[in-house]
Amino acid sequence: MFSKETYIQRRQLLRERVSRGGIILLPGNGEAPRNYPDNAYHFRQDSNFLYFFGIQQPDLVGLLDIDAGEDWLFGDDLSMDDIIWTGPQPTVHELGASVGVTRTGSLAQLQETLTLAIRKGRHIHFLPPYRGDNKLKLCAWLGLTPDMVAHRISVELAIAIVSLRDKKSDDEIREIEEACEIGYRMHTTAMRMCRPGVRERDIAGAIEGVTLEMGDGVSFHSIVTQHGETLHNHSHNGILESGRMLLVDAGAENLMNYCSDFTRTYPVNGKFTPMQRDIYNIVLAANARAFELARPGILYRDVHFAAVRVILEGLSALGLVKGNLDDAVEKGVHALFMPHGLGHMMGLDVHDMEDIGEKYVGYDLETERSNQLGVSNLRMARRLQTGMVMTDEPGIYFIPAYIAKWKNEGLNKEFINFDKLEPYMNFGGVRIEDDLLITETGNRILGKRRIPVTVEEIETFMAGN
Ligand code: GLY
Ligand code: MN
């Protein structure tokens, strides 16, 4: 937990930024049952609640009264029956005091407070709930039906929270750096284990063990696959084969739930074939281009376009793509090979604040989301600012079904040498992902040491096993 002054200040800034007045409701998460109520998933607190209240305890609700300038924490103290199972726990009042909240009450008192506020016609601001139980609680508290909830979201609150959470403080960067160090250990563990005959599951289990030993677990379900062409391939059923590449996209949360997110792709047998090296080096050049360009004031959409341009230049040099590359970018030809965006914000969520809505996190009045091929999946388009943390994760994928579709439909056929793609049908995919902090003068790669990334670094590292 950060100092109590940090949370006091964050809540005060939030109250100041929601000028309409009224009440801000920030429900924490409850336990989420896996297969019956008493067998819950590992508890994960809501990130907005964590940001403003910092408490890692289920079933609490934060409330900011903008008009009165008061912060409240609501929850029920544990009964003796609970304590027999959980051991002694701090009271809601003690929890509140630890983050500078002196006004606390029970959940019944929360309901009374909200009923009174509704009767007085006060505005109640809340964010889009992403868990069913929190949605139902909102409905019960506010007298809504579930289908009304989406229409009552407070855009002003969404924008205010994004404006606070999108720039990370030095304290937050320290936490993210810690998550990056866990990520380094995960990825080097995977590289060390990688050899023919090993199961993807062996590696997935080992790296997730690292996150549990050093932090709070994974920041998302680990991708450990020889089928890197399937962007979010969550199967770990493969057995590693010489000649193929392993793609590992995995990250950690530290004990404060700050995240890391890295991807490395390397040959199972530790030695790149010429074909693998060529594709790999194009992706690495695109990743490097983003580092060259990312700085305050630049649109991340422009960084995305510069990176995909590098990819098209590389594929053109290999003869897979032809024609004028400016036109190719314009037409979205790169989307055949990289159907995702260059990156996303990262912080207390691996896709930071995605629950609030990409519309407010990655876009603004200047940057409307595009439907165009190749940009429609870009999560972050808006201008970078000092303190933002971004991922830089270009890739090249040979997705047989997608290539067949383009070929059959003649889509962008003037730019693509479909015949030359035949030898790549079993290639898989390459993605390289690092995390970067936007600084006043540019950016820096997060993590005290970079996971081996060049062909030479990877081959040397793997040869040392
Ligand atoms: N690393 C997984 C993702 O960004 O979606
Ligand atoms: Mn990512």
TrEMBL record:
Catalyzed chemical reaction(s): Release of any N-terminal amino acid, including proline, that is linked to proline, even from a dipeptide or tripeptide
The GO terms this record gives for MF are: manganese ion binding; metalloaminopeptidase activity
Keywords from UniProt, A to Z, are: Aminopeptidase, Hydrolase, Manganese, Metal-binding, Protease
**Pfam families documented for this protein:** AMP_N, Peptidase_M24
CDD domains per record: Prolidase
Member of which family? Answer: Belongs to the peptidase M24B family.
Q: What is this protein called?
A: Xaa-Pro aminopeptidase
Q: From which source organism is this entry?
A: Candidatus Tidjanibacter faecipullorum
